[in-house]
């Protein structure tokens, strides 16, 4: 008897492992029902569902070139078709909905104002004069030194003052 993918057969469980069950099919060939194909729900212990000697109906899922046969108990059970979900329109076909301020997701933006946290940075609607590279670099260095000195002060106060180390 030739075994074809998609056919449903009666078989007998001949062995159980932690990864599945071996089922002897008509004609003497043996196939494997993987643990994920035993039931529709999660199977932690296959022994709760099958025992050696059980007669089961299986569906042939695949047949490898080397003779290995993949089986499924789950797919052998006939269940009513679910109604298909209505097809959604493609993204370009959907009407666009611009946000107004009350609908806009907050994300990482601060509540209560348009300025970034900490009060730094330009106001969004304020034009910034164009600066030369040297001016931008000196401003960056000044800001950077201020931040480093603030961090050092905070770190020293947590350690117990003036960089004292605990031993």
From TrEMBL:
<dbReference type="InterPro" id="IPR012340">
    <property type="entry name" value="NA-bd_OB-fold"/>
</dbReference>
<protein>
    <recommendedName>
        <fullName>S1 motif domain-containing protein</fullName>
    </recommendedName>
</protein>
<dbReference type="InterPro" id="IPR050437">
    <property type="entry name" value="Ribos_protein_bS1-like"/>
</dbReference>
<feature type="domain" description="S1 motif">
    <location>
        <begin position="6"/>
        <end position="74"/>
    </location>
</feature>
<feature type="region of interest" description="Disordered">
    <location>
        <begin position="74"/>
        <end position="167"/>
    </location>
</feature>
<dbReference type="GO" id="GO:0003735">
    <property type="term" value="F:structural constituent of ribosome"/>
</dbReference>
<dbReference type="GO" id="GO:0006412">
    <property type="term" value="P:translation"/>
</dbReference>
<feature type="compositionally biased region" description="Basic and acidic residues">
    <location>
        <begin position="133"/>
        <end position="159"/>
    </location>
</feature>
<dbReference type="GO" id="GO:0003729">
    <property type="term" value="F:mRNA binding"/>
</dbReference>
<feature type="compositionally biased region" description="Basic and acidic residues">
    <location>
        <begin position="75"/>
        <end position="96"/>
    </location>
</feature>
<dbReference type="InterPro" id="IPR003029">
    <property type="entry name" value="S1_domain"/>
</dbReference>
<dbReference type="Pfam" id="PF00575">
    <property type="entry name" value="S1"/>
</dbReference>
């Amino acid at each position: 008897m030739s075994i074809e993918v998609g056919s449903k057969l009666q078989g007998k469980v001949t062995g159980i492992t932690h990864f599945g069950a071996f089922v002897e099919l008509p004609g003497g060939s043996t196939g494997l029902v993987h643990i994920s194909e035993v039931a529709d729900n999660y199977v932690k212990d296959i022994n709760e569902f099958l025992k050696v000697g059980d007669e089961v109906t299986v569906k042939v899922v695949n047949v490898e070139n080397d003779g290995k046969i993949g089986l499924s108990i789950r797919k052998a059970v006939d269940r009513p078709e679910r109604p298909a979900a209505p097809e959604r329109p493609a993204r370009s076909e959907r009407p666009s909905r611009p946000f107004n301020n009350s609908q806009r997701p907050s994300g990482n933006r601060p509540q209560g104002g348009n300025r970034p946290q900490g009060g730094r940075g330009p106001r969004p609607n304020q034009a910034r004069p164009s600066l030369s590279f040297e001016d931008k670099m000196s401003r960056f260095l000044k800001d950077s030194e201020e931040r480093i000195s603030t961090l050092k002060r905070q770190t020293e106060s947590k350690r117990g003052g003036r960089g004292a180390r605990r031993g």
